[in-house]
Each structure stands twice: as C-alpha cells, then as structure tokens.
Fold these 2 entries.
Entry 1:
Amino acid sequence: MIETLEEIGGRPLAPGQGFAFRCGPDLACFGSCCADKRLPLWPYDLLRLRRALARPSQDILAELVELETDPRSGWPALRLRLNADGRCPFSGPGGGCQVYAHRPLCCRIYPLARAVAPAIGGGQPRQVFIVQDAPACLGLGQPRALDQGQWLADQGMGPYLAANNRLLGLLMHPRRPARLALTPAQTHAYLAALYNLDVFRQQVRDPAFAKRAGLEKARVKKALRADESLLELGQDWLSQVLFG
Ligand code: SF4
Ligand code: SF4
C-alpha cells in the first residue's frame, strides 16, 4: 500500500528535476490507460469521489470498490472495481474522465508515482517522484518539458499529498506489528472511519461515542461540519483504537 522505490518501476527524479510528457485526445493512445489497471483508492480519494458523485459513501463502497489486504503490511487496501470489459467505470465514451476534477491520486499524479518513507524525528515524510515505465503511453515520448513541482500543482495534488502524508502516521505507526492481522471488527472500524464517512458521521454525532472516544465538543462540531475534519478525526480515533 505504501510503495517503496524498489516496488515502482520507473526512473527516479532528483528534487526539482524536470521530465517530458503531454497527454491529449489527439494521441492514438487516448483513453487506453483507463482500462485493465489496478486503481488504488486512498481515503481522500473516496472523499473526493463521493463529492463528485453526490452519493452516500456506503453506496459507492458497495458498487464501485473492491477490498483487498496488502500482503506485505496487512492493512486493508481498496481499489476501484472495473467494468466487466476492464474499463474504469468513470471512463467516458470518448475516452475522457467523467470525474476529472475529483479523479483519484493514482490518475492525477500519472505519469509520475511517489515512493515515501516516514519522516525521521517528525516533519514531512521523505519522498521520491518517479517517471513510471509505460511503453504504451505515447505521452511520454512527447517533446514537452515539464517542471516537477509545477506539474504536481497543476494537477491539484496538494490536498491529496497532504492527506496521505497525514495518513502515514497511522499506516506506519511506530507500535504497529511487522504485519498486521486485523480482526473483522477492526477492519470494519478501518473502513468506517477512513472510507465510509456518511456512516462514521452518524457514529460521531452520537454523544455516547464522543464520550467513549474522549472527543472534545469543539472537535466533534468541526468534524460534523467538514468531511476533511471528519476524516482526520477518524484517523486519530482509529490510531487510538488499534494502537492505544
Ligand atoms: S496512455 Fe498516456 S498519453 Fe495516452 S491517454 Fe493515457 S496518459 Fe495520456
Ligand atoms: S478515474 Fe478517470 S482518469 Fe482515472 S482511470 Fe477512471 S476514467 Fe481514467
């Protein structure tokens, strides 16, 4: 789920190093990359897709998401369920993306990928951006020089990276075992707090839950007002439930 440099095929970029890429409907490969792919979904991806689709989180999870377990870490890992023909359910007839403004991180960051390691002694995680190996992607052969930081900004990566950096605090918690073996109840709590925000909101609204979890009234109020705050609260609650 958290990928290391060795696990992502591609060419690592030095900080600030540029790369060449252009994507557009004039390329013969347009839309071909939205099929037959493993499309991981992070909690913030689900939050944004829910916003795009204006549907309850439990419906999206039931219809559009598949649950796996990361074989290395033991954490639950969610991915987008592809159509029977292998295409992404959001792929439009002309090859465009129907949720473009809210597309998941894995699509947004392409042709780059990010390998991360937790920060030593606090602060920001260490990260390396990689130009992915994708021989079928004609965009990688286009003579259009891009600045790494500008590309990430143009793709709206800021809130996605910030949310995932915060999530690292849970996924790489210092008290987690080498490989987790979550009980069904713990997996349910993971999915509720990080992905099923409509259900988790009802839970947080219950004064008995807030009391048991030791949540301050002001924090509950803030979480009930904004999905982003609710997700942060969910992550902190889960950290407490799983690791004390
Ligand atoms: S394969 Fe590459 S260039 Fe072609 S549509 Fe996908 S991202 Fe764009
Ligand atoms: S979410 Fe959009 S960009 Fe990503 S695979 Fe689906 S259609 Fe393509």
Entry 2:
Amino acid sequence: MSNWNSGLTPETAARALDALESGSVLRLQLPFPLLDQESDLLSPGLLSGARKNISYNSDDGSLKGCVNDPQLELCVRGLLERYNSLTRQLADTLFVPYRGHLQVGRTSYRPAEIAGRKSSSWRRDDTRLHIDAFPATPVSGRRLLRFFHNLNPHDSRRWIVGEPFPELARHFFSLMPKPSVLQARLLAFMQVTRSLRSSYDHYMLQLHDRMKADLDYQAKVPKIPVEFAPGETWIVYSDQASHAVLSGRFMLEQTFYLPVDNMAYPERSPLRVLEGLAGHTLV
Ligand SMILES: [Fe+2]
C-alpha cells in the first residue's frame, strides 16, 4: 500500500492479520514527511532530564517528557497528534475485524540513540530480548498492539527477534512463582500498580524479567536480526513477539489495546497460551 488509508485486498488483509496474530512483524513503506517547522525535532535535546521518550495522551492532550519550551512543545504535540491520527486510520484500514474494539493508548517519540546507552538496571535494558509487560499498568489480558515508524532520514533502527511466544512461555513457565492475590492487593493499595495486577500480568512480568535476566538464554536462543529502514513503518504485537532493540533514534510509536475476544485467532494470544500452561483462567 502506498498511503495510510489506501486499503488492501480482502485476501492480503486476511494474510496480514494471520501473520500479525502469529507474532510476526508487519513491515510497510508509508510516507510520513516532517513539516518544515518540524526539522528541529530530529534532536535528542528535546528530552527532559533522564527521560527515554516523550509521550502524548490523545484523550486529554497532555504531553510528558519534553523540555520546558512552549514553542517546541507545540511542535512535538503537532507531530504526535498527526502520527496518532494516521495510525488510527491505518489500523481501521488494515484490521477490519478490530474496528470499534481497539482502545487507543499513548503516542510516543523516542529521539535518543539506543546504542551505547547505559540502562539503570537489567530490567530496563531493552537491548536484551523480551516481551513487553509493564509493572505499573496491568492490562488484564488485553493485547498490546504497537505501530512504529523510523523517522530517522539517514539510519535504520536495528532489532533482533527471538523465538515464538509458545516456545518462550514453555521454556520459563515451570520456573515462575505462582501469583499472590495478597501481593496484588498490596501493590494496588500502595498505588504501585494503577489497578489490581491480574495473574496474567504477574506471569507476563515474570516472563519479561526472566528473559532479560537469563544471559545464557539470551546467548543461545535462536534469533534473527531485522533492520527497519529510514521511513519504514512496522506493526507488531509487542506482548507476543520476543524482541530487542540494538540501535536507532528518532522513532515514533503508537500503542493500541485489544481485548483478546476481538482477535481473529484468540487462541494464539499470550493469555490463552499461558492459561493452557497454568491449567486455569488467569483474568
Ligand atoms: Fe519492548
């Protein structure tokens, strides 16, 4: 497809959805030119303090992580609003069965270079293979669908992609402690989590942490390098596809959430795979 809402034939759209829900990365070439007044945005100097990204909430228009400069903030907000709007159109065009079910999450801009950056801990080191799961924001089984765009006009963004989700889940499941209802209640009471951490969220965080902590696993698991060229867009269920980011800067990202029951193949979701291993429901 050549633009953000040109559509696909039903056969191609069905194949794309099948691949996406299998954990594959969909890659697209779609133009997203910067406006003349946005040329200053290709700079890591936009970030406030030690922030890794600038995030925009399209529900309330709030912007976080940008330096305190009204002119720049206006410009970044414009860029993120445009990306938010185009990715929503693209999601509606590409994934017809998801229409009306996708919940729009944050839009973010990551201007800093990944290569050589010191992470504050191994947990935050995204150069190690992992699946996305976040300690403070339980999703209770909802899928994490992300649209990325490499805004860098000169350099690729480099990833590696690891083994399929069912295999990594089987690899780590027997090593993971069982969830504790008491601990989940305590975390919510102390406002460490924004809502009650479900058993599903417990296992996903465990997977995220155990993958990153296990250097032997990181070294030996089958993996393939992937380069996203300047101007490339890619779409992935980042809670399912094992991935690591090796290098790159100036990337846009839009998150969507999808209830598992609105998937074409819900049995492939991390929720259903983990429930199969646990032998009971997890949300
Ligand atoms: Fe990630």
